[in-house]
Amino acid sequence: MTIDEQLDFLRKGTVEIIRAEDLRVKLERSARTGKPLRVKLGTDPTAPDIHLGHTVVLRKLRAFQELGHTVIFLIGDFTGLIGDPSGKSSTRPQLTRAEIDANAETYKQQIYKVLDPAKTELRFNSEWMDKLGAEGFIRLAAHVTVKQILERDDFEQRLAENRPLALHEVLYPLVMAYDSVALAADVELGGTDQKFNLLMGRNLQREYGQEPQAVVIMPLLEGTDGVQKMSKSLGNYIGINEPPNEIFGKVMSISDELMWRYYELSTDLTSAEIAALRASAESGARNPRDIKVELAKRIVADFHTATDADAAEEEFNRIFKRKEAPDEVEERTIAASAYKLPRLLVDVNLAPSMAEARRLIEQGGVRVDGERRTRVDDEVALQKDQTMLVQVGKRRFLRVRGV
RNA sequence: GCAGGGGUGGUCGAGUGGUUAAUGGCACCGGGCUGUAAACCCGGCGGGUUCACACCCUACGUAGGUUCGAAUCCUACCCCCUGCACCA
């Protein structure tokens, strides 16, 4: 690829590249010298369960790897050990060394579903931060003015609105920026929420006499609700370690509008290919549902296999198109006896409380052996070794066996 | 330390002595329509007993108190926020 082609390739899906010209210079130099670029991604060791949102940036990193560059996957263990000492942010707990190590392991297992391990360096920022010490850190802080720090939007806002802003919060961007210096990063990737921190890296590198890193900013992928960014705590995520059927189902539940976002940010299709799909949906030539099936299969195949994707589709059709029971249903045993229906649901964990069970029944959400049961006082007799299929809602099935 | 404001169900946010398990929005759950899309419609949304009418328990930061009766009043305590003061 020519440098221009490379730039175009890297640009797909990005929000912004700062500055594109800097990136070009770096790409050119790398091509000339044969020395790969060092492409950094900083991450928090808190939530090691990677979801589709994280993969947006990971995919971009892989794009760099495909061009021969080196990815530095940086785990911010130093900041993780400190967390948010004020304890206000539950998303930033203080972690122990052991927890961080365990999380790092989990990261490793997951990121290589996207990244090429041969071109990935895994680093920890405690490597240099531990050595820095209080003195070093204050020296570091001397390179940045308060005004510069306060340029960050949310800091400025919170100040303006008289909301609290703790000192450690303004210090963290410094740590992240210093990571870029320590690593002599050529490029750093991040989501739009990281823009300030990424730019801080540029500034600090300049202060330390390094050539500023190019910054590649990726959009934040919306979660399955289509509104808020995907995150575990909001429960709107698609985890890459989830079983194929789950991933498939979750993708199928996203809105049509959101589907195009996912196509753009979570598949390798080119912008032109996506535009063509979109046109076929809008003209009515194709049912959007089928295009979504295709998306779901692609995403499943990315984290599992193409065979898994086919199986997931088949299972999905079985349950939702043909309204049959799934291929494999979890089985639970329970003492053979006669049960009041709500009691049964609670005993096998299909409902959290009797009140909830009753509601489900009254509202027509419960089927036993395929038959809808709406009477709360019904009794179900379960003989020894007899099984029955209990369904709650559209997708929760359980085979209950008497013992 | 001083002053002011505030702590209500998953969340936001009403409620300032009594039909208040607590208005409303969001989220969530079940049903309907569909393509498990969106939009929309219906129902639900602390727990327990009951076929059911109904009854009981728990809940408005914590602990006491006043009252026939408190989320609402009083006292103490805890926590949060803002400002002031301090900044050698």
Layout of secondary structure:
Elements: H1 3-11, E1 16-18, H2 20-33, E2 38-43, H3 52-66, E3 70-75, H4 77-82, H5 97-111, E4 120-124, H6 126-141, H7 146-149, H8 153-160, H9 167-183, E5 187-191, H10 195-207, E6 214-218, H11 244-252, H12 256-266, H13 271-282, H14 288-303, H15 306-321, E7 331-334, E8 337-340, H16 341-347, H17 354-362, E9 366-368, E10 371-372, E11 379-382, E12 387-392, E13 396-402
Parallel strand pairs: 2-3, 2-5, 3-4, 5-6, 7-13
Antiparallel strand pairs: 1-6, 8-11, 9-10, 9-12, 12-13
Helix pairs in contact: 1-2, 6-9, 9-10, 11-14, 11-15, 12-14, 14-15, 16-17
The chain binds one RNA strand of 88 nucleotides through residues 88, 162-164, 225-226, 235, 249, 252-259, 287-290, 292-293, 316, 319-321, 353-356, 359-360, 362-366, 375-377, 392-395.
Oligomer status: single chain
CATH architecture of the largest domain: 3-Layer(aba) Sandwich
At the first level of CATH, what is the class of the largest domain? Alpha Beta
Q: Gyration radius, to the nearest Å?
A: 26 Å
Mean pLDDT: 85
Shape: globular
* Count, helices: 17
Strand residues, percent: 5-15%
Number of strands: 13
Residues in helix, %: 40-55%
The CATH superfamily name of the largest domain is HUPs
Point out poorly predicted stretches. Answer: none
The name of the CATH topology of the largest domain is Rossmann fold
Which structural class matches the secondary elements?
alpha/beta
Distance between the termini: 66 Å
Going across the major beta sheet, what is the strand order? 1-6-5-2-3-4
